[in-house]
Amino acid sequence: MSPPHVLVLTRDHDPHADHVRHLLAARGARTTVFDNGDYLTRAHVELAYTARGLARRLLHTESGTLDLDSLTALWWRRPRPAEAHPAITDPSVAAYAAKEGANLITDLWEHLPCRTVPGRESVFRRAAHKPSQLILAAELGFEIPETLIATRADALWDFHNRHDGHIITKPMGTPWVENLAGGHAVVRKCDFVSARDLAYAEALRFCPVIAQRYVPKRLELRVTVVGTRVFAAEIHSQDSNRARVDWRRYDLGMTPHGVHELPDEVARRCLVMTDRLGLAYGAFDLVLTPDGRYVFLEINPNGQWLWIEELTGLPISEAVCDLLLEGV
Question: Please, what CATH class does the domain formed by 216-315 belong to?
Answer without folding.
Answer: alpha beta
